[in-house]
Amino acid sequence: MPIRVLIADDALFMRNMIKDVFAGDDFEVVGEAANGVEAVERYKELQPDVTTMDIVMPQKSGIEAVREIVKIDKDAKIVMCSALGQESLVMEAIEAGASDFIVKPFKPEKVLEIVRKVVKL
Amino acid sequence: MDMSKYKAMFISETAEHLQSMSRGLVKIEQNPEEQEAIAEVFRNAHSIKGMAASMGFEPIRDLAHAMEDVMDDVREGTTRPEAEAMDLLFQGLDLLEKMLSQVENDLEFSGEGEELAARIRSFRETAGEKPAAETAPSEEPKKTTGQEEDKPEIDLGDMGMGEIEAKEETRTSPPPKLPELVFDDDLDFALDEETEEEVKAPEPVQTAQAAGDEYDLEEEEDGFDDEVTFTLEDAGLASPPPPKAAAPAATRPGPAPVPPEPESPEKAAGPRRSIKVIFSPQTASPGVRGLILFKRLGEVGQILDSRPPADEVKAGNFLDDPKGLAVEIDFQADSGEAEIIEVIKSMTDVEAFEVTAPEAGPAQAAAQAEDSAEPAEARDKEPAYDPFAQVQSLPQTVRVKTMALDGFINALGEMILVKSELREVAKRHPIGALTAGLDKLEGLVKDFYDQVMSIRMMPLESVVQRLPRVVRDLARDEGKKIRFEITGVDIELDRAILEQLTDPLIHLLRNCVNHGIETPEEREKMGKPGEGVIVLEGYRMRDLALIEVRDDGRGMDPFAIKEAAAAKGVVSAEQAAKMTDEDALQLIFTPGFSTAKKVGMVSGRGVGMDAVKNVVEGVGGFVTINTVPGSGTTFTLHLPRTIAIVNVLLVKLLEEVFAVPLTKVQKTVEILPHQVRVNQGKRFYLDRQEMVPMKPLHRFLDLEEPKASPRDAAQALIVEAHNRKVALLVDDLIGQEEAFIRPLGKPLERISGLSGVTMLGDGKMVFVLDTMSLL
User: Fold this and answer.
1) Are B484 and B536 in contact (CB under 8 A)?
2) Which residues of chain B neighbour A95 with C-beta distances below 8 Å?
3) Is B284's CB within 8 Å of A103's CB?
4) Does A84 touch chain B (CB under 8 A)?
5) DSSP character for B742?
6) How far apart are CA B311 and CA B613, in angstroms?
7) Please, which residues bridge with residue A28 across strands?
8) ipTM, 2 decimals?
9) Are B112 and B63 in contact (CB under 8 A)?
10) What is the mean pLDDT of each run of 10 residues along chain A (121 residues)?
């Protein structure tokens, strides 16, 4: 069974890049969201194994989305996509219930490693 | 004490503060309510004052002091950061920069410093609510006021000083209920008061020692705290580096050595273990990694204590360990060792870890904690407050001559070549031991390469600090309102590349200000907000560092550029007519075009632009332009992140081998006959849905082209040039190699399409192709 991934990022460019990272057989990108509101909706709908979540997104930030998703599903596995210098936001997200984070620009193998580990948590 | 050896440090650190101050002042000018910037500029002035004082540079000290006082008033709300105050502060900044260069060149100060300091003081007196006596720069009172001044800073919770309080808390408070207690920013302040009490409570136990500490540190405060603090700040990782506050804070940890008593035994059950986790030194955001570790461990047991304390870990400060960033945790849990190891293994970037099984039963362990073991630990901890120990524990701050770094890279290049030579030998004479040794050597060289590269890397931030000031000044000269944003400055590039970027970036920004952004009136007429926006953004893509400079101004019109270029004789009218818009935009980089003036919308667009292109291409990069007339222009610098050693793809054309930098190659493909489409006599490779023109690489090198035999599969490199994909056909793909690229030198360097030469392991020289200029 491939790991089912939801990608939330307001930048199409980033979503595509992340999608490429998950191109292997072990993963299946089941959905994408371009803002926090969509992320929560898609999460409810798709129940992915793992969600990659950008922090700064319009309408609803990634951190807000994490809070809502964790309320719905306390075992949700969410990996924050951060840029360097966003450490305090990442920490806020972790405290809100995100499991881990990756730092842009990311190395594909690192992303896969983290996602694989997070799913096992 | 001989101060001369500190001079270089003083210069570089003061320069950093001045840059920060420059950024801060620009921010405050844009938004007088910008509390963070206000606090930052205050701290900059304060730190400069302290350093200058210890160096004996009185004029700098007095000027910085005067500026600090103004910033203090601003912070207190008694002075608005407006017209006169801001002018004086900017003048102060400029003069401090000037005086710093006087220090650097061993010149006498000119007396302007005193003069401006006096003007600032009298400004404060007239504007001020503060009694003049407090600002008088007389020597004697200064010492006392100096210390008093420091005190309020401890209370600057809202300006980032809270972190210091938090550190105390983790040392002195009962076993923290991680993660809520320690990590919740909001809670920090709520807990401060409690902390104060806790700090006091255990004091009697340690009276003698605590008092001793306090005494020593008070003594050192004047002379040393700035240096220590700077060292901390310099370490860069610490997100909350509150200058000065370190010393006053350090006077309080007297009681810190008190063992953290497990006061809530109802939660603490099971055997105690000590856990040591070492994160890779390369890990991004180590503070967050630490937080995750604490959180996950907190889910299976209880963290009793840690070294460094949790909040320091969160701030990215770890114990030094040859293997990386270490944290030691005293942990108590019912769960078995396997479960704990499981948790640690769920972490990323863990270089090594240790879980030490309990030596004694839980009860004994607790007792141990109360008397012998922990205080011993605690005593070990103490030197952390010794300024010398601080310096020792921060090897990141060692300054290296840049020449040494260049020496490394040359040596490394040679090493790689020698390694490849040996590899060739081993191929011809396969001896087990030789091959095994080579494999090992290869690993070592790779490690060395990574490390050399990482020391050479510097964040983009280091060259963009002055830019806000540049934009501000340009905008003011032009009577334009501009908001300048800088993001993504954490991307790292080789310093040799960064060093060359300042001028091109200034050229690009000048261009945006002068020609891109319209006047407020024009903008409003077009329905745009009066304030224009210029953004400088850095990010990474594959192996490249990209730097975008974009504005929301009037954009460029390719037609106007073509006309202008044709009129200038840069291109013929015929050529111009044939040009694509993209090629037309590239015309602004041609030197001839630079002089093109009075062509309306594109007026002067080329000034200095050829220099931009030259620099960027000189380091192996390229520039692209995107523009939408009426809504703005984006210049993107595509830069290699490292220099000199490049991964290349070796290809064969006829009997010749050529190298193509891997960064220029999107992928390599074998094109099968059924993937080829022919349209108007031209062959295209059908890449998924996309028709990619197929071109033999031979054609661009004046080599005899192979006869296209439609039945055979063809090897090709997919490259992108001028925003178009091309499938370059080659006779054979040989493989990938790390190449130490040497410049061609005169006169070969003038041949376009060749970016250098590299030597293969067998000693054969191979040209490195620059596909961008070739196609």
Assistant:
1) yes
2) 179, 183-184, 291, 295
3) yes
4) yes
5) B
6) 46
7) A4
8) 0.92
9) no
10) 91 79 89 93 95 85 94 93 76 94 81 91 82
